Amino acid sequence: MPAHVPVPATESADDAPAAPSPEPAAPEPGPGPLGRERAHLTASRAALRAMREDVQSLDIRDVTANWVNAAVLEAQIEARIKALADLAHTPLFFGRLDYLLSAQEGQSFYIGRRHVHDAEGDPMVVDWRAPVSQPFYRASRRDPQDVALRRRFGYTGGELTAYEDEHLTDPEEVERTSRLLQAEIERPRVGPMRDIVATIQPEQDEIVRSGLSGTVCVQGGPGTGKTAVGLHRVAYLLYAHRERLARTGTLVIGPNRSFLHYIEQVLPALGELEVRQSTVDELVAHVEVRGADDARAAVVKGDARMAEVLRRAVRSHVSMPSEAVVVVRGSRRWRIPAYELQEMVRELLERDMRYGAAREALPQRIAHAVLVRMEQAGEAPDDRIQDAVARNPAVKAAVKALWPPVDPAKVVLRLLSDAAFLAEHAEGVLTAEEQAAVVWAKPPRSVRSARWSPADAVLVDEAYDLVRRTQSLGHVVLDEAQDLSPMQYRAVGRRCSTGSATVLGDLAQGTTPWATGSWADALGHLGKPDAAVEELTAGFRVPREVIAYASRLLPHMSPGLAPVSSVRENPGSLVVREVAQEERDAAVVAACTGSLAREGSIGLIAADDRVPDLARALAAAGMAHLEPGTETTAASRLTLVPASLAKGLEYDYVVLDEPAAVVAGEPDLRTGLRRLYVALTRAVSGLTVVHARPLPPELH
Ligand SMILES: Nc1ncnc2c1ncn2[C@@H]1O[C@H](COP(=O)(O)OP(=O)(O)OP(=O)(O)O)[C@@H](O)[C@H]1O
């Protein structure tokens, strides 16, 4: 059970017993262990300052040959100075490991977000990602990993105010729950998502530190830390493989912009500024999306069989030669007969190259055949002649006719507009009914005027990849992955075809008509069928009572999935309030007012079509509210969240309006229940459900 780490003794801390809310301490380093730790903190801060000053005083005039180098170097120095900033509210270290005398020469290491060294180069704080830090997360009484003492530090507003010790090899010590860890988990939420570097749990750490070469898929219920783990894995990989990933790049994919705003601070807080964040839609934005599909069309367009239809359609542009190519050079004519050209075309088609690459290879093949004939005639042509022949007008004209350039968007446009063209390439792949579902009723005139849907854009992306290989990144994190269609998995998969991925999701939270039913299928479409699937079951967000309530829905929508077991010890307040229809909006506003009386952020979640009414009700009561994705602050804490955007977000207190409307907002009962499950699992400290209509029977 992750929250229960063996914590025997705060008694040994002679001047500072650890406490969930550590007392505001005098900053003066006093005597005793806490005083010494504070002194180490002060010295570490000074060392960090010295490191920063060293960089600031670098004079690059003598070492840069030109202004380009100088600009690059200056940018690097700028980034380094930023990375060395001492953030007042981010503790420089949060833990300490004392190794046994037999290991690491009995040394102590302070574990923090970044490495700090003194003037001699000796470490004052080691990076949490360094191998020497790993036992901080993994060592246990059963497997102490050469650790004699693990110490966790508690801070109040940047001041070191408490610590907790575990002597992992001491048989006398009793196992207790870490109060500092518990306090961290239960800290009220305001603002964007935070890093969890001080409290990563052992099973989370195994995922975080898994190697760059393998793809990992994490199934986990709401609040089990999937997003947190994925982001920390990126930070870890960037540390362990910085040069390689700097070359190849990393990308985090989330479901929408609100979500990306919510998580965008985590990596910078860990010192990583270079990671791109995107939605799937943004990745495939070759065409402007202005349209939408009905569920039936979207499901067919998202089906992996569409890849075969597109492949055939793109390759249908190739035609078999029926005439010879004659190349004239000087007084000589070189003739490549049709049957030889046919062989070349056939061979290129069989090699299954990208359409564009084959198109580039064909003139070289023809030129090679000409060269062979030249040699047979006693000439001694070199590579330059081959290139010249490949550019010969007769060869160019032949290639243009046999293997014409293809515009990927136009191919998709034609497939979706021309029923006969679609039928030709979907023969034996899509049924007549499926074909009818995807063809546009009113064919657009051009790529520009077409009302492309998100699913169409994915098809265009697939077509682009058939023509020219999509560049692969070194690592891709795919969050809320359960909602992707097979074609979307393929789009993501080609962006990590030579790299690896972290796939995060919860099958029970799948709310698209094409949501994945099994991770094995999803990973197959992603092109990573051998990826390991890990499961996280300990919940760090939702209080026990609330998760138990939400889990009543599980057997009705995702049978077989294990409910989350909450590690939150504070009794979560779950209030379910039935009111008369005409009092409902007022009751919702009152619930928000009640929640605002407490600390932390408040999310009012409602069916999408209830949002305008509730916005008016809040305005009438003089209560300002934010949109999802806008940062909550101490002054502005209430966000009105349409249920369709709630996924991945969390609020300290949630007021949920009319569950029946949330369910009814979806096209089918299963999706409706899943949407409700998402809405019910956003609260950290308390959930108030307000309803006038009967609750969905599955909640009883
Ligand atoms: N080891 C941990 N220590 C402290 N807090 C944690 C830990 N793991 C997760 N959390 C916190 O729990 C909350 C939920 O985490 P996260 O959003 O990553 O979960 P999730 O599995 O992605 O949830 P969902 O399925 O709802 O998207 C976050 O506030 C996160 O910071």
TrEMBL record:
Gene3D superfamilies: P-loop containing nucleotide triphosphate hydrolases. Residues 8-18 have a biased composition (Low complexity). It comes from the Bacteria. Keywords: ATP-binding, Helicase, Hydrolase, Nucleotide-binding. Signal peptide: none annotated. Pfam families: UvrD-helicase, UvrD_C_2. ATP binds at residues 220-227. SUPFAM superfamilies: P-loop containing nucleoside triphosphate hydrolases. Residues 199-552 form the UvrD-like helicase ATP-binding domain. Residues 1-37 are annotated as: Disordered. Transmembrane segments: none annotated. Residues 19-32 have a biased composition (Pro residues). InterPro entries: DNA_helicase_UvrD/REP, P-loop_NTPase, UvrD-like_ATP-bd, UvrD-like_helicase_C. This is AAA family ATPase. It comes from Streptomyces sanyensis.
